[in-house]
TrEMBL record:
Alphabetized InterPro entries for the sequence: ADH-like_N, ER, GroES-like_sf, Lipid_raft_assoc_Zn_ADH, NAD(P)-bd_dom_sf
Protein name per the record: Enoyl reductase (ER) domain-containing protein
Positions of the Enoyl reductase (ER) domain: 26-352
A Pfam family of this chain: ADH_zinc_N_2
Superkingdom as given in the UniProt entry: Eukaryota
GO molecular function: oxidoreductase activity
Amino acid sequence: MTSPTPPPTIPPTMRAWLRLGRGPAATSLTLSNSHPTPTVAPDSADVLVRVAYVALQFNGEMLMQLPSLPGVGAPTRIPEMEFSGFVAAAGSRVPPELREIGAHVAAAHSVASVFFWGSGAMAEYVKIPASGTVRLPDGFDMKMASGIACCGTTALKMLRARGVGPGDRVLVNGASSSVGSLFAQICKSKGATVVGVASGKNEELVRGLGVDEFVDYTAHSSLPAYLKSKYSGELQFDAIFDCIGVQSLFVQSPDYLKPSGVFINIGGVDSSIIKLLLNLLINAYLPRWLGGVPRHYVMFSTSPMKDDMTVISRLIDEGKVRVLVDSVWNMEDLVQAYAHIATKRARGKVVIKLGGD
């Protein structure tokens, strides 16, 4: 009789990227080869995950440059939020499907957990509450799985904020981005007409997502002016989803967004925190009689949610949507991967390989 295979031994130390202070990745991060491996209390609701891949956030390096609050958080912080991997250990209060050693999972920390308490994902082993972890089918693409938490949750929340459905006309600015590409696919699955905006070099990729029309913003001196010329009158949009953060796109939106429409912005790639907050105050609260834009504006931000992660993983497993993976980098090349994101040429998620499939 063959005895069961014992669970793999969890090493006492691991490799982990540590943020030692404020600043860009090149000066604030160091790779430790002997960081203590986290442990899971037997009676806890925590899961210890052997990490396969970590998906980088487009604003991850910007967050590293924010000042820390005095007296708050760990002296060293592990960066990044979302990842995929395999269950290595679990507490007794973890749901049964997450207690199986070796189970494929996707997971994500909250922004507060990473920024204030240093509990990030860029390590070979990560301890995370079961509430932030979802079980995946065996054989699930783990590179793709590493990016479902943040962009998936954001895409679904954007969809619910407007309630996109059959007959709606939707503009997605940044349709080749991780969130924009996923959102365009979900809108199409809901029966909407989708116009995707991206660079011309990404046209084939964006059309491959199923969009009805493609707009190359680099072919026009002014994107808002072009949209006015082509999508005014009866062709105005019911919703505009800006995944890049182009202020002029909202300011001139009455030319191509219906009066009943909504403009949803998930942030700004080129904007500082101060500029983002200033735009939010002006766009959302400036009265029309003082020059405010007569369209509903939403600045959208959300934390990863387990239910939404489950929905996205099911849609991926059914072949209805896919998370775009721009590139995969070795763990040692994290700083170079952040530099690649800074070029703004990434098409989808930039992923770091730690343990692989």
